[in-house]
From TrEMBL:
Keywords: Chloroplast, Cytochrome c-type biogenesis, Membrane, Plastid, Thylakoid, Transmembrane, Transmembrane helix. The keyword Oxidoreductase does not apply. One of its GO terms (cellular component) is plasma membrane. Belongs to the CcmF/CycK/Ccl1/NrfE/CcsA family. It is a multi-pass membrane protein. InterPro entries: Cyt_c_assembly (IPR002541), Cyt_c_biogenesis_CcsA (IPR017562), Cyt_c_biogenesis_CcsA/CcmC (IPR045062). This is Cytochrome c biogenesis protein CcsA.
Length: 318
């Protein structure tokens, strides 16, 4: 009983913290204050500790890893979002905007699990026979890690599209009178220093636009890296799931709705990476593909559970 009480307290405290941290990072987008950024980082660390407490206490009294139903998977997804933020901040990367993506992601997934799901679905239950396997941690954790990183990368692409849509584009020339590689399509060329990885000659246009240009470059690079990592994790998750399916159901692939949508998700992000690596695309075109991937991930993750069909619908809502 004490574990259940601790879990409820940790869950409500962590949700309140994610809400406050989200407001802090959104305020930091406007004011770009070092104090706000520092406060948000500390708040995210405390949030991570609280969500960890939720998962650990649930694991202790349930006797299995907290990855067996929709509530636990959403809490795990919120935990991963906060962990991604902390890892990037610890590495010392200049990503002051990152909290405006990771904090709302952690808050919304946490809020849906805590406030959106009925109490019955939040309760821990015995594992169904198919889940009583050592593959549970390998497959489910890899899939959820891939979802979190792919969603963060896709949200970065969506933010990229929103910002570039509002920027007043200017044509800039390099010092040797030759055009540099286009960062955005539609023949809008920008002065970009490949060695310093930064825009140069900021006096050519207003500071607000210069700041937005720097932000779009960071968003584009972060989206590419996050989706690359998420795609690798998704591949591992699908392969481990195929092995597990063969042990549980006697078939590596049965075209279950979740399996089918996982394959569609994998294909969409494979197309994104192909356009980035082999075609050399940057900017709006691959960002549109990644934005489509955002929708596909949610259909794969939540849509199957909402319909309550197939072999993977353990946490269905209907």
């Amino acid at each position: 009983m004490i574990f259940i009480t601790l879990e409820h307290i940790s869950a409500h405290v962590s949700f309140s913290l994610t809400f406050v941290v989200t407001l802090i990072y959104w305020g930091n987008l406007v004011y770009q204050s070092e104090e706000l950024s520092s406060s948000g980082g500390k708040g995210m660390i405390v949030t991570f500790i609280c969500i960890t407490g939720v998962l650990v206490t649930r694991s202790l009294y349930s006797g299995h890893l907290p990855l067996s139903n929709l509530y636990e998977s959403f809490m795990f997804l919120s935990w991963i979002s906060s962990m991604i933020h902390i890892v990037i901040e610890v590495r010392g990367q200049d990503a002051w905007w990152l909290g405006a993506i990771t904090a709302p992601s952690a808050m919304l997934t946490h809020g849906f699990a805590t406030l959106g799901l009925p109490d019955k679905m939040q309760q821990s239950a015995m594992l169904v026979p198919a889940l009583q396997s050592h593959w549970l941690m390998m497959h489910v954790s890899m899939i959820l890690l891939s979802y979190a990183t792919l969603l963060c990368g896709s949200l970065s692409s969506i933010a990229f599209l929103i910002i570039t849509f509002r920027i007043n584009r200017k044509i800039l020339f390099s010092v040797d009178n030759s055009f540099l590689r286009s960062f955005l399509p539609n023949k809008n060329w920008y002065l970009y220093d490949q060695e310093k990885k930064d825009l140069i000659d900021p006096f050519c246009f207003p500071f607000s636009n210069y700041r937005k240009f720097k932000l779009t470059i960071q968003l584009d690079n972060w989206s590419y890296r996050a989706i690359g990592l998420g795609f690798s994790l998704l591949t591992i998750g699908i392969l481990s799931g195929a092995v597990w399916a063969n042990e549980a159901w006697g078939s590596y692939w049965s075209w279950d709705p979740k399996e089918t949508w996982a394959l569609i998700t994998w294909t969409i992000f494979a197309i994104y990476l192909h356009t980035r690596i082999n075609r050399g695309w940057q900017g709006e075109k691959p960002a549109i593909v990644a934005s489509l991937g955002f929708l596909i991930v949610w259909i794969c993750y939540l849509g199957v559970d909402l319909l309550g069909i197939g072999l993977h619908s353990y946490g269905w809502l209907i």
